[in-house]
Amino acid sequence: MILPTYDDVIDAANRISRHVHHTPVFTSAYFDRRVGASVHFKAENLQKVGAFKARGAMNAVLSLTDEDASRGVVTHSSGNHGQALANAARVRGIAATIVMPHHAPAVKVAAVRGYGATIVFCDQAEREAILTEVQAESGATLVHPFDDAAVIAGQGTASLEFVAQVPDLDVIVAPIGGGGLLSGASIVGDYAGVDVVGAEPDVVDDSYRSLRDGVRHPATGASSIGDGLLTGIGELTFAVLHAASRTVVTVSDEEMLDAMGTVASRMKLVIEPSSGAAVAAILKYSDAFHAKRVGVILSGGNVQLSVLGGLPAT
Amino acid sequence: MILPTYDDVIDAANRISRHVHHTPVFTSAYFDRRVGASVHFKAENLQKVGAFKARGAMNAVLSLTDEDASRGVVTHSSGNHGQALANAARVRGIAATIVMPHHAPAVKVAAVRGYGATIVFCDQAEREAILTEVQAESGATLVHPFDDAAVIAGQGTASLEFVAQVPDLDVIVAPIGGGGLLSGASIVGDYAGVDVVGAEPDVVDDSYRSLRDGVRHPATGASSIGDGLLTGIGELTFAVLHAASRTVVTVSDEEMLDAMGTVASRMKLVIEPSSGAAVAAILKYSDAFHAKRVGVILSGGNVQLSVLGGLPAT
Predict the structure, then answer these.
(1) Which residues of A touch B301 (CB under 8 A)?
(2) Using alpha carbons only, what angle is made at residue A58 by residues B37 and A197, rounded to the nearest 5 degrees?
(3) Do the Cβ atoms of B86 and B117 come closer than 8 Å?
């Protein structure tokens, strides 16, 4: 297994810079006060397709040889990676097939379709078979949502920008589902001398336990409002994060929702529940961040507004 | 009546720049497509106190002589101006008294109190008497929410930044309640050769009719979701806008709500209903903006999240 490197992240940044947003960094006196730290928020919710996933998919697609690219790309996703891959394929002018579950929200289906991708609906049980079938028929390249070196390097560009925008960060906090975003952050953090901490829902704490135990545990299969974080940590992402001795902290669904509402009412930014995990982490474990320069990646903003509407203003 | 000038806006910018945010400008491929124009959004919802009002109040407070400042400031407001004046007074280290209606939302009362201001509750009928009383007792300077040259000049700094951030704007669209924001935009627009258009709820269309007829009409007294826009156009603001032959367009509450939801789901920004008026205007009157370089001021982001939650994702 070859782990992606800092040079891969630099290459990714050069490759994708014209096709993704250089997202802004925000501060908030309210959060500084509550955490007792200097907190900086990297607004990947304002990224293309509404999430950092635009970076990794773009890097993977732009890294393909012309011959491979001509046969298109395929992935399975009910969420942001599907949109991100469809968007990247459109930019390169190649075909994309997105395998989605039957129960995928209509708004996400419409978004993927809007980027011109082909959608194949499936049951969870037949997902692998359908992916294999599409690959066999078309020769399309599978772009995995996180267990892919080019995807990890692409996600790392968010942290590469972050450390350039905010000098002397002590730590970057980011949510972890499959681990692409956090692995990218870890690679950049290693180089830049910045600590990196993951945040995940307590009911799907496989990453927390995997990195604590040094053994990759499977996904718990539980459900959480952090719908982007349900998947288990990947092989490659585990290897990257374990090698760097990274740790993960856990937060409850209620804490994630509260964090979302606080970001909306105090910072006027819409973030999705998965992003709320990282924000909740700095509030819950504020002692660990005291007096530090803290960077939080607001990983995405794709959420039904009705979820926001159920939250109290803080 | 002496109207504020472009030089006053420049002076205001120099005076307040260290105490307010230089807010970012965002674009959205979605809005460009829907309007058929190049649309730029000035994010005053990310301004201190969550609205452009921070600018005018700051300029008014920093413009006071030391002697006047020592006696404090007073205003009446149930909304953003109260917070803005309380914040400005805190920055200068002087006393502020905010006269608020008994029914003011608890969250707004808490915000004003959080800035260290004194709150006096009153009924609408006794408001003027209480303001007079506070002024008589303390010698405090009244800072009117909009009919004040220093406030107008301060609000103009939003547009001053905007035309510097986006060269060759054809038109700036902003909501109008009392008219401070739009008057400031008009002064800058005159100098920079940029057209300026106001947007207001159709049920409180006094500004629309006043500028159409060249006569200042009183507020309609109707209610609208655009709670920052219910007040009638001011004397001074009418004079500024009438002299520049500005026009106002009207939108329905439903169109404002739809615009808020679209900004939240497409741009991941929380805006208040009043801001929705300007966004709704470019969607409703897209023909008038076709192929132009359009600037929209997202005037504020102070809204109960439950309002957002009732909106469909677009």
Answers:
(1) 268
(2) 110
(3) yes
Nearest Cα to B263, choosing from B54, B52, B43, B108?
B43
pLDDT, tens digit, 9 for 90 and up, residues A70-100: 999 999 988 899 999 999 999 999 999 999 9
Q: Are the CB atoms for A89 and A96 separated by under 8 Å?
A: yes
Interval B236-278: pLDDT, tens: 999 999 999 999 999 999 999 999 999 999 999 999 999 999 9
Rounded to the nearest 5°, which phi and psi values hold at B195?
-70, 155
State the ipTM, two decimals: 0.92
Round to whole Å and give the CA distance between B152 and B166.
Answer: 22
Q: Say how far apart CA A22 and CA B63 lie, in whole Å.
A: 38
- The answer to whether residue B42 is catalytic is no
The string of DSSP codes covering B43-88 is: EGGGSGGGBTHHHHHHHHHHHS-HHHHHT-EEEE-SSHHHHHHHHH
| Tokens read off for B303 | 């809204």
- Per residue in B131-157, is it b (16+ CB within 10 Å) or e — as a string? beebbeeeebbebbbbbbbbbbbbbbb
Phi, psi of B171 (to 5 degrees): -155, 145
Strand partners, B21: none
Nearest C-alpha neighbor of B187 from the set B145, B239, B235, B250: B239
A117, with CB counted inside 10 A (0-12, 13-18, 19+), is: buried
- For chain B, the domains span 6-51+148-309, 54-142
Per-position DSSP letters for B81-92, written without gaps between them = HHHHHHHHHHHH
Q: Is B109 on the interface with A (CB under 8 A)?
A: no
Contact call for residues B222 and B204 (beta carbons, < 8 A): yes
pLDDT at B247: 98
Q: State residue B313's pLDDT score.
A: 53
Binary contact (B309, A312; C-beta < 8 A): no
The two structure tokens encoding residue B110: 């808490």
CB contact under 8 A, B307 and A309: yes
Contact (CB, 8 A) for B184 and B198: no
Q: Could you tell me which of A127, A140, A118, A131 has the C-alpha nearest to residue A60?
A: A140
Domain B54-142, what architecture? 3-Layer(aba) Sandwich (3.40)
Strands B195-201 and B247-251: parallel
E strand or H helix at A126 = none
* Interface A-B: count of C-beta contacts within 8 A: 65
**Beta pairing, strands A25-27 & A38-43:** antiparallel
Question: Quick check: A110 contacting B, CB < 8 Å?
Answer: no
Topology agreement, domain B6-51+148-309 and domain B54-142: yes
Q: What angle do CA B109, B257, A42 make, to 5 degrees?
A: 70
Q: Catalytic site residues of A?
A: 53, 78
Cβ-nearest to B107 among A107, A301, A313: A313
pLDDT above 80 for B205: yes
pTM: 0.94
- Of the two residues B123 and A248, the one the predictor is more confident about is A248
* B54 in reach of chain A (CB within 8 A): no
Q: Which residue, A251, A276, A147, A257, is CA-closest to A200?
A: A251
Please give the CATH number for the structural domain made up of B6-51+148-309. 3.40.50.1100
